[in-house]
Structures are given as C-alpha cells and as structure tokens.
Amino acid sequence: MEDTSQVDRSSSLDLFNSLQTRADVLVQEVRSYQAHINQQKREYEVGSRTFVRDTEAEVSSLKKLNPSTTPSDVAAPQNVDRNVEEEEGPRLTTLRSSNLPFFFLVRGVAKKCRRVTAIRVKIGWKEPKNTIGQNAHHQMSMTQENEPASLQKRSVFVDVVAEGGLEWIKVSTLNEKRLLFEMAKEGWEKYSGSDDGTATDSEDDDLQERDPGAGKLELVRLAENLARAAKATRVRFRHPHIKFVLPNIREGVLKDIDSFIAEIRSTGAVVVCGKDVDQFLADGRLDLDRMMPVTADASLTSTINVDETILLALISDICHLSPQQLCSIPTRGPRGAPKTHYKSIANQIAEEQEAPMLRDELYPLLTGRDLDCTAIAAQRFRKIVEKMATSSEQKRAAILLGEGQYKDQPLSVLREAFGEGSLHCVPDSIHFPVRIIQVDIEELLAAGGDPAATNALVCKGFPTSIAARTKDTIRHSTILSSAFLYGWARQVTTLTSNRRMANGLIKDINNVLDTEERQGRGYNADFVGPIIHKCKGARSLIGQDKNNEA
Fold first, then answer.
1. Judging by DSSP bridges, how do beta strands 303-306 and 118-128 pair with one another?
2. What is the mean pLDDT of the chain?
3. How far apart are the first and last CA of the chain?
4. What percent of the chain has pLDDT over 70?
5. Rounded Cα distance, 28 and 343, in Å
6. Does position 387 have pLDDT exceeding 80, yes or no?
7. Which domains does the chain have, with CATH numbers?
C-alpha cells in the first residue's frame, strides 16, 4: 500500500501514474494466470472469477480518473483562483480511496502461495439459528444435534485459498491510524471484554446480519467467523488453518495494537504483519506452476491400487480404436441392423476424440508404478469381461491380469501384446501384469495396529476404528468398497473413475470424524485417511450395443 505521507504530498497525477503503472502489471499477471489455468485445463479447479471481475472493474474505474482528461463523473474546478490542491481535491480523494492497493496485496500474497484453489471466494457453512454471540466451539458442537430446519446458512470471504484448500488467507490494508480510530469508536473496554460477537467484516459484506451486541473490531469478528467456517469444513479430512496478512500494522510498537493482534491469534489464526509481510512478499516473481492446484503426481504413491473402473478403461476398445474401427466391430444383433450405441457410450466415444484417456491420463499416472487390485474387484472385472467384452477387449483383459496364454510371460511380451492394434503406444515403464491381492476386509479392519495380522497390509497409523465405522455407513457394494478400504489400509493411492463412490466415502469419513470431534476425540493433522485419485472420465466396454442386449 502507498505510504500515507507520500500520497499526501503527491498530486493527483503522481498518484494516478503510480496506480496505473501497478495496475498494468496487475492486469498482465491476472491475464497470464488465467491463460495458464486454461492451458492446463484447470478452470474448474481454480475459483478466480470474482477476483478477475472485481480487478477489471477497479482498473476500469481508475481510467476514468486520469487527470489528463475531465470525465463527467469527476467534479471540474469552478473557481480558477483555487489553489492546485483544492482543484485536485475531489479527484485526489477518489484516487486515495481506490481499492487497487487491496487487489495489489491480494495478488502479491497469491503469488507467494502454493496450490492456489481460489482467489476471493465466499466460503459457506451452516450453524444453529439464534446462537449469535455463543462460543464458537460450543456452537459448532451443537450443529449436528439440530434438525436441518433449525440451521442457518452463513458465509465469509477468503482472499486466497492455498495449499490445496488447507490454508485460508485474509489480507487487509488497514493502517494503524484507522485501527486506533476504530478502537476508540468501539470503545476499548467493550472491545476487550468477553462478548463473542459474530458479525463479519462489513468491508467484505461477508454476512448480511450484524451481531446486535457486537463490541469487537471488524477484523476480530471476521477472524471468529473464519474460525467457525474452518471448523465446519474439512479438506482431505483436516480443518483448514487461517492466516491474516496485515502489512500496515506493526507489532511491538503500541500496546493496544498488540492486544488487537493477540485477539485475532486467540481464534487460532496466524498473523503476519509489518516487516514480516515485506519479507513474505519479497521476490514476488510469478511462478504459475507453483500456484496451480496439486498435480496428479503429487498424490500418487509408488504402488497404485486400481479398481474395476480403471481395469475396464484400460482394456476398452473406446480407448484403443478409432471411431471408424468401433463401427466395424461385429455385432450379434439383427442382421443388417445399423451399429448403434447407448447414449453414454456415444458420449464416451466423443470425449475420447477430444482427450484420449490412455494417452492423456491413465498411462502418465501408471507409468513406473506397481499396480495392485483386490481379488474381489478382479473377480468382478472378469465377470463383466466374460459377459460384455469384444474379442480384443478379452485379449487385453488376459494380458492385464497375466492370465491364460499370458500367464508368466515377461513384461516385454505383455507390453507388446497389449499395444497390438492400439492407437496409443504402451509406455516402456508400464508394469504389467496387475498384481491381484487376496485381502479379507473384515480381517483387515480387525487387525488393530498389528501389521503381522494381515501380512503387513496395514500401514502404521491406519485408523481401524474410523474405517470400520465408515464401512458400516457405506451404502455401496462390497466389491467397490473393498478396493477403497484396501488402499486406505495400505496407504497406497486408489485410482478410480467412480467419482460417486469416492465422494461418498470421503463424506462418510468426514461425518465420522465430526462425530468423534464432538465427543472430544479429535483427529486433524495426524489422521491417516485414504489417498484417492479420481480420474476425470470413465470408459465402458464397447462390446454390448443396442442391437446386442444381454
């Protein structure tokens, strides 16, 4: 933010030029960021539209304040005898109140973060009605005990969401002079009391309602709301942590300001202020790759546990053949009937032409890694192949599992056979066949923490109690759940195209964790959850079409 004393001595032209120069850099960086997101096809993983829209609007407003012009919305001087300062007064006041320094700061903070998933985003949560002013921890502990109708939706703005969602950052350009003024306005005794007001920062319009008894400063109330929102949110089974960045507030200079900082920290937030912000923002180079959300490779282990959806995609003719070849596949339907597919299959064929799943997703994920599959999932896979697969899909299935004529064949033979007739080359470092793991889920969950009980399939720290309770809530087939529970117990990445099952499992685990937390048995950073990578698409077997009903 511009130094106040310098701004006071600057003419409107000086201030405008300073803002315009920085705005040009801001716009250029925002456009580069958006272009990189689009190039990486991460549009749906990064929420930055609000920031881009607000930035463009603010820059557009700045252009209207160019002292070289006389825009209609800026009062022109009526008295030529006024001194220069009076003539520039309205324009200078508007320039000084520009929100651009705030956007500069948000952008500077975002550039220093890793795995940014959102810039300027509204976070929502639910809490019981008529509890404004209650202790945040008590309030959230009551949430699950209320009927849905008794919950109210609340929301708060977060300026930067980083670390894949686990870090929420709030920035403010509030300076010490303004802070002391607000302290005096609120009344320090009232502010420093025990009243737990819950209204949010009015500058951000985070909540529509205000706490009628609020006696705390806006940023303190915002910190409390962020803490409550984080407590109601789980990202990879953990609650996000909160950071405040306050470049114009110094610590260790004024006692009252130190008390204000301590009040924010009492909510559990980290506060970075004064010179520490300068150090934090130093070397503000734009590293677009660092800012991107976590890549697929970051969540992969040296061994990949594949479920039946991945096995099916690996052998599907949709992934290996051209549309013309697919149309020529023999069918057992009525003689002379046109080759037709279900709409879902037709959609997959169209998707494959846009983004080949083997080339763009599966092969890069699997290359150089050992491949596991539970015996239950493999058996289900075999049944589907037997019923629906074409001859080429059946051949690939045998290669993939190392069965039939491909049993005990060397890796080079399996790779060559798998790639025969395929549009895509099989990577040299792909590890065939898939290793089939015999595992008893009940025995796995009963193992406690003793790896020897299950042939060392259970990793250290595997929460058997949480896993068992989660399994009891899973409303899906044992076949599907076995793959996820095995991967969880062994702490290897489970690769799946079954997003519904994966999301349901994650939701069930979070619900169990919330129950544990309400009962005083909290898990957070030390919790060992499943490592799941959800593929963007799915591929079915092509063998059964509308002219070939089972």
1. unpaired
2. 82
3. 69
4. 77
5. 43
6. yes
7. 1-98 (no CATH), 101-294 (no CATH), 296-328+341-534 (3.40.50.1010)
